[in-house]
Amino acid sequence: MLLRPARTLAAATMLLGLPALANETVRISGWGGSEVAIVNGLLTDVLAEKLAKEGITVKYEPVDGEFSQFIINGLSAGTAPDLFYVDIFWARSVFSAGQALPVTQDVSGFAANLVEAFTYEGKLYAIPKDFNTLAVHFNKDIFDDAGVAYPSDGDTWKTLQEKLVAVHEALPEVDGLCLVPEYARFGAFALSTGWTPFDSRGRTMLDQRFRRAFEFYTGLVKSGAAVLAADAGQSWAGGCLASERAAIAIEGAWIISALRDSAPNMNLGTVRMPKDLESGKRGNIVFTVGWTVNAASKVSKAAAKVAELLTSKEAQQWVLEQGLALPSRTGLADNSWLRGGRPEQMTSRVILEGLSDDHVMPYFFGKVGGSWMQPINAALNSVILGETDADTALASAQSALDRMLAN
Amino acid sequence: MMARKTAADARPSRRPLPAGALRRRQLALSTWLYLALLAVATIMTGTFVLAFMASLKVDPLERPFRVYFDQLNPAAWIAAARLGQEGAGDALWGGLSPGAEVDFSVTYGAPAGTEIVEPKAEIPRRRPGSGIAAALMRHYAADYASIALKSSSSAMMQVRAEKGGLQAWQTRTFVYEITYRTDGQDQPWIERTPLNLTAPPSQTLVESPISPSRSERRGRLLSWDNITPGVLGLIFNNYRRVINETADLETGKSLFGSWLVNSFAIAAGRLVLTLVVASLGGYALARLKFSGSRFIFAALLFSMTIPAQVTFVSNYLIFRDLSLLNTPWSVIVVFVASANVLLMKQFFEGFPKEIEEAAIMDGASRFQVFWKIVLPNAKPALLVNAILAFQGAWNDFFWPLVLITSPPEALTVQVGLLSLRRSFGGAQGDWGLVLAGAFISIVPVLILFVLFQRHIVSNELTRGIT
């Protein structure tokens, strides 16, 4: 009801001849969760005037559930929205099918590695809207009660593990970390050794460096530093942190909105990923999402304009200050908001620093896509569960990867 | 007489059991049967009851599962009603509105010798982290309410010690008053009044009108999501959230309402279509002799073996070309079960041919026979078909999921429930919302069954007897 006068006003200003374009409706879509508040806030608070001036009405349709499925169905049936999210994880399948329009605007303000991630055959197909990296989030109260020093930026794998073991010894009901047998978290450790997912010939070699990270990660449970998330009755590490079952969680900034719902008063600290003792370096994975214009859109120009506005400096500044996501524009990296002391400010700062870790790779695996991770995930799972030893698991993962990449 | 004699002669070796033994055997048999039925019923309703209980909880996944909590505790209901009344003059749904003066008392206890300090009380600015709630939240109690300690008093209590025997504990009761500040310009009604109490872990909360929603910071902080819930607001908090937090971002109207309407429209549409097609088709196959009728019947039977997933791509493309995607029509017409036609055919075949022939002798046309004679007598079969069709359409998940994807208000309730699974980092859902939504969604089918269950089991025979 409140919006109606605003809309009438917008219509009235348009009648006065201000807009350059005729009124066009652009359908945009992204996934739900904490994103709804971000996009809706941008459209109704930050960008409302500008959109009215351009004569664009935006119809925002958040989709909960399987977004990639929704968009791929929609694209093949011709019912997809004009502008939609693409996750770097599956973006390639949309780009290679010619279902996205190349970006024409100037993208010099955006972080180069994010732009690179959405570039396919020399053309940029999506404007990165935000990104996430992994960090160590910890519950200060647990460390206080256990009398153990907080995790710090200077931690190595070993010192972090020692702290977690000490916490578990002091407080038996608390585990150090909830572990998920997934490359999406383990990858940061593997990368910090200097290992790369693909060598110069495009092959994946699970070499000694990978093995070192693999043994450390799978050994966390045995050493008493960690427990499998599923064994703690949770589906992800953030659930364990929220329920105070685990002292730390290795996750991205998305954990902030989850904690707002399930542990709003947690005394939270965030530090960077631990370093590999041998290489002395840090690794990290970059998760990023962009806005893509549907190639079949009838209002592609207006859709591109909406994408431009949604990723403008003003919009990203607002998103950043809500503590909801990290901006993809490098200009905002030294924003004064990031220097504040509130948990979301601190977390955002650390996540942003993660982008400049020593070995950072996007969460993206070339043309094989997400199935590339499956042999590694299976190996992690079977070793953590004690079904096989590292030798057998890695050998079978290596041969599965060889078969996959040979084609 | 003859029959009885023959039966007795046929089994000469079996002597009738003594009356007592026979009776015991019958009793044992019926006891086993009764127990088996009871077990089945308990398993069926037990999960149902547990799920319903979980749908009322703040955390439905809590372990261990408690069966006694505030939402089922009459003392908490009374307290919630009082708090709602004091907060907004609404004992049912509560809230906080101008003029509110809420007294909230908490009692902390500690072993003798440990000092009980006054907890730090705060009305936090609690912001939903996800979903539509986060986008729609406009007013925070923190901006309008102030909290102050009104009085405190000390007492002693006996506590059962860990090693057995009684132990004397001291207790202190703190009464807080929460008031609505009147200095601001606008004075909105606020749905929830959260409260945080921070106290050293050495003292324990022993009494409060309603239990804290969660204990955080390893026992240092007790947090209430809403201290002015009202009795229904306390019990049906998740249900209220389902309605309020699935709102259209532009109009603020509840999406759940439109999902229910859509589901109802689709189920009703499919019911009508099924009845028309199944009765006409069934009658034609049962009575009309035309070339190819056997082939059609065989095709019908064969089509029952094809799962919907096999044809969904082609069906989807057809609907796209007809521009029926994202309309209820696509889901209504996509699926008329051949099983319904078969059911009607079987019924019509059992219908006495002589009556129809008599009608034809009287000059009725084929359609008149069908419409005036056969159909009015086919009510039981039609009802069974109608109920099956309605229930099938209401519970259908696959077709609405595939055919209706946007806008959000066009979904059906079963697909809409999916959107209540908020996710962070790929996991974790708001199960309170999902369970509450699922329970609301079964209400129409439940009503339908209660109203028509007599017809489902009745037929001409039983009707003649009763």
Task: Report on this structure.
- The complex is a heterodimer of chains A (407) and B (466).
- By secondary structure, chain A is an alpha/beta fold.
- Chain A folds into 2 domains: 12-131 and 287-339, Periplasmic binding protein-like II (D-Maltodextrin-Binding Protein, domain 2), CATH 3.40.190; 135-272 and 365-406, 3-Layer(aba) Sandwich (D-Maltodextrin-Binding Protein, domain 2), CATH 3.40.190.10.
- Chain A is 43% helix and 17% strand.
- Chain A contains 17 helices and 14 strands.
- In chain A, the strands form 3 sheets. In chain A, strands 1, 2, 3, 6, 12, 13 and 14 form a 7-stranded mixed sheet that branches.
- In chain A, helix 16 packs antiparallel against helix 17.
- Chain A is globular, with a radius of gyration of 23 Å.
- Chain B has helices at 2-10, 19-56, 74-88, 131-136, 141-144, 231-235, 237-245, 255-287, 293-303, 308-321, 328-333, 338-349, 353-361, 366-374, 379-395, 398-403, 413-418, 431-457, 460-465; strands spanning 101-111, 120-122, 145-160, 166-180, 195-198, 204-207, 214-216, 221-224.
- In chain B, a hairpin with a 4-residue loop joins strand 7 and strand 8 (221-224).
- In chain B, helix 8 (255-287) crosses helix 12 (338-349), helix 8 (255-287) crosses helix 15 and helix 13 (353-361) packs across helix 14.
- The longest helix of chain B has 38 residues, at 19-56.
- The interface between A and B is large, with 51 and 46 residues.
